[in-house]
Amino acid sequence: EWQKYQEALRRGDRVAAAEAFRRYQEARRREGKGGSKPTLVNLSTKAKAYPNAIPLDQIPQELEKNPEFFDLMRRVVIKEVNHDKLHT
User: Fold this and answer.
1) How far is CA 29 from the centre of its chain?
2) Tens-digit pLDDT profile for residues 30-86
3) How many other CB atoms are there within 10 angstroms of residue 81's CB atom?
4) Each residue of 42-63: b (16+ CB within 10 Å) or e?
5) HSE (CB half, 13 Å, CA atoms) of 48?
6) Residues 74, 80, 86, 88: what is their CA dihedral angle, to the nearest 10 degrees?
7) 3-class SS shares of the chain: helix, strand, coil, % to 5
């Protein structure tokens, strides 16, 4: 499911990315992972169009409704993928 999430981010499809992230979260729960309630926190001092702290369960909703948050997640995930490819 994580790969489907990455692909949706690359395509720029907010709805598909949100749905893929929901499926990813559900798959982790079925595996017995993800029992805690972590929160994604942005420590930037710049004003953003999205909250500075987003519980992981709310990430799909933010992906769908907020293009600025979607672009941030897209940059982070694509950067992570490119970094992994360089070091394998």
Assistant:
1) 16
2) 888 766 677 777 767 676 777 788 888 899 999 999 999 899 899 888 876 665 555
3) 14
4) eeeeeeeeeeeebeeeebbebb
5) 19
6) -130
7) 65, 5, 30
Residue 10 near residue 81 (C-beta atoms within 8 A)? no
Q: Using the 8-state DSSP alphabet, how is residue 56 labeled?
A: G
Model pTM score = 0.69
pLDDT for residue 64: 94
* Angle, alpha carbons 79-83-54 (nearest 5°): 40
Question: What Cα–Cα distance (Å) separates residue 39 from each residue in 29, 54, 75?
Answer: 16, 5, 19
Cα separation, 25 vs 28, in Å, equals: 5
Question: Taking CA 60 as the corner, what is the angle to CA 40 and CA 44, rounded to the nearest 5 degrees?
Answer: 30
How far CA 63 is from CA of 19, 32, 68, in Å, comes to: 9, 25, 9
